[in-house]
Design goal:
There is one protein chain. This protein is mainly alpha-helical. It contains one helix and no strands. The longest helix is centred in the middle third of the chain and has 97 residues. The radius of gyration is 42 Å and the shape is rod-shaped.
């Protein structure tokens, strides 16, 4: 009977160790779950901030491109006026030569 008591005692000790280990693992799991949730919240906040920052960059780039477009259109108009003036002068010269 003492062998059975010894085996039961050893078994009880192992069960208590397992219970203790399970409790530590549950505590660690709770801590890790909380940390994971905090990190997810931080990631969402960073993604939102990055999205706003990217939108601001796009707005700046769009403004720059609009300004460049306006400048190019003005240069195009000026060039067209100069070509028209040159054509008018050539027309006058042609008439003078043929007259």
């Amino acid at each position: 009977m003492s062998a059975i008591v010894t085996e039961l005692s050893a078994l009880e000790e192992r069960v208590q160790q397992i219970v203790s280990l399970l409790e530590r693992m549950r505590e660690e799991n709770r801590a890790l779950t909380g940390e994971r949730d905090d990190l997810r919240a931080k990631v969402r906040a960073l993604e939102a901030a990055a999205g706003k920052h990217a939108a601001a960059d796009y707005k700046t780039r769009l403004k720059s491109l609009e300004d460049e477009r306006a400048t190019l259109l003005e240069e195009r108009r000026a060039l067209a006026r100069r070509v028209e003036e040159m054509l008018a002068k050539l027309s006058v010269l042609e008439k003078a030569v043929h007259a």
